Amino acid sequence: MIQSRKLALANLWVAIGAFAVASAMAFMQSLSRADLDLPFRTVRMYYLSVTAHGVLMAIVFTTFFIMGFGYVVAERALGRPVVGRRLAWASWWVALIGTALATWAILRGEATVLYTFYPPLMAHPLFYVGTALVVVGSWGWCWVVARTWHVWKKESPGVRTPLPVHGMLASIIIWVLATIGVAAEVLVLLIPWSVGLVDTVDPMLARILFWWFGHPLVYFWLLPTYVIWYTMTPRIAGGKLFSDPLARLAFVMLILLATPVGFHHQLVDPGVEAGWKLFHTFNTQLVLFPSFVTAFTVIASFEIAGRKKGARGLFDWIEELPWGEPAFSSVALAMLMFAVGGFGGAINAAYGMNAVVHNTAWIQGHFHLTVGTAVALTFMGTSYYLMPRLLGRELELTLLARIQPYLWFGGMLLFSISNHLTGLAGMPRRVFDASYAGSEIARQWVAGTGISAVGGIFLFISATCWVAVMFGTGLAGRRIEPDPIEFAEPLEGENGKAPILDRFGLWATVAAVLVVLAYAWPIAQHLSMERFGSPGFTPF
Question: Is 124 labeled as catalytic in the residue annotation?
Fold first, then answer.
């Protein structure tokens, strides 16, 4: 039994609750965008729900799930209890209180600033305080997991860091480097501005600091997802990991390249020189490589599993995989969606093509393939494996669990593809009324928004199934002696190849230098120019 079981579960239950609320908000949005005559459909309610969905899903759900999962990985892979459990619980409380404050401000309609909380849109001060506390709580988690690994290293001289912990440490390094930017934005710019200590804020500087954080956030989500793909799913499939060194190489490349990429979100923004935008764009294209490595390695691991079960043909190993096991099917379907999202991401980051899709529905279609499926569906599938083992209860509502990943996959195909197409046709993202008061151009969006709404219905049904299975298992699952949480063995065994890949201090230092190179001069250049602050605006 995992000694940090209650700690892990506390984080996972917050993640599940945030997901449930965010899913309901998303359901309302997809129907509203299709221009359906709903009793609660107002401009105020729509943009309130956009903010709630983005913050609760992209920040709260992911962060709490990763923290809970990280405690499980640290204890099981290192074979020792986590260090600093009091700090771990204090961090959970800090992040939970922060979540409550930010959610209160959003649901009262006093923080309609969307997921990016760009100024000069101004939120209630408690929204900024709350989001800051979530980050502070996550820093405590980083320290606990990293400290546990450090103690283990002293206890186990000469033993290589287990691959699952290697991936989680890479995620921690990325997170710490990335959150420096958003912490500076919130603490230095937004909180003093929102409480009235200063009259104006610099929107351009705020955007730079946000995207210092905003795109590395994607890799904070993806690295634990990759840990699951590399170290858990091959075992669930009945096989072995194709290559341990390739996995470590992918993790190290993400440490180096995840953060100096933010300007590819600002290619149409003034105030940043074209050369720096191109530098960040180049890094963004490079960071695609570890994803290609991951796809190759994990698919090869699946093939190993299929051939161990007797497959001999070119592709018949696919039939041998456990497609009826939701912990496997969720990941496999998430990977398929991520492949499509990855190609779309290359277009988003292309210096010329970005202008075509920027701020259109294409972006929300892309975003829901990456965090909305690659990450979220993987986390949902992993919960089918983790929760019974942490709770000591048999999984309930197993039929719902088996069909849930396929409902999500089908719903996301309808939702995402239609948004990509309407985006190419010029439909803006985050738009309340897609009819544009009868505009001729907007008429070509009608079919797409209808298909998107159908996809949203499937996604909401799938989300409801998952939440029902989680709470059903927690409340009514039959008591069992839980199976151990196990990780995949590498095909070549523990051969100790490329030990330099385990030098976390070296890679963290190089990554920090790259962050300084990518941001220090552009920020200094911006601060040296004549700047014009803006007062705050609240739309409702």
Answer: no
